[in-house]
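help with this:

***
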Amino acid sequence: MAIFIDENTRLVVQGITGRDGSFHTTQMIDYGTQVVAGVTPGKSGQSFAGPKGEKVPIFNSMDAAVAATSANTSVIYVPPAFAAGAIMEAADAGIRLIVAITEGVPVLDMARVHAFARDKGARVLGPNCPGLISPGKCKVGILPGQIVTQGPVGVISRSGTLTYEAVYHLTNAEIGQTTCVGIGGDPLIGTTFVDCLEAFARDPETKAVVMIGEIGGTDEQEAASYVREHVRLPVVGFIAGQTAPPDRRMGHAGA
């Protein structure tokens, strides 16, 4: 099994016609993800050409895309000023997992978004995250598919590049992964370490977890407490960095 995404994921790409959206849509289709629709206002009736001649229909709105395709997941590649609206539109359309790749989304926007998504029963991953991948089944976001392999270890990380590094070394050591999740480095994120640990603990195929944190905030301490009290799987944790220079904001806003 896997957590959050698998071979039954039906994906809508919000911002499919933009530079990043189109590039990563091609990569996701090539990996085997079921990309069933794209959304770009004003481009309804057009289609996105996949790497093997696939035609992905484009809609003006998430309501129309979900009604036509029964999509259950969305990934967002839109500018920061429009990201909050895109997330709320997806949640309002009935999407259950919303992966927000966009970085630079205002914190106040995300405070409003997370409350709205919870009320709608939607899970938000991110923002400012690389997405997630269940090896051999589905990829949503920007994680490179060529470095993963199927196996029994779940991976959770705040940092995209450290996710890639950990997965690369696991694969080279012939230790495969169930799902690799990049939760994002912003101060307000929709899915936390604890959320992922809870999901991995319920997954019968996950036998151990690698968790990679960063300085800043208390998410790692909360995750350690949760592991101590609730998780029976082996969990290996690593926190990158020791201290931040005074009065200097680090690359991830959460630091």
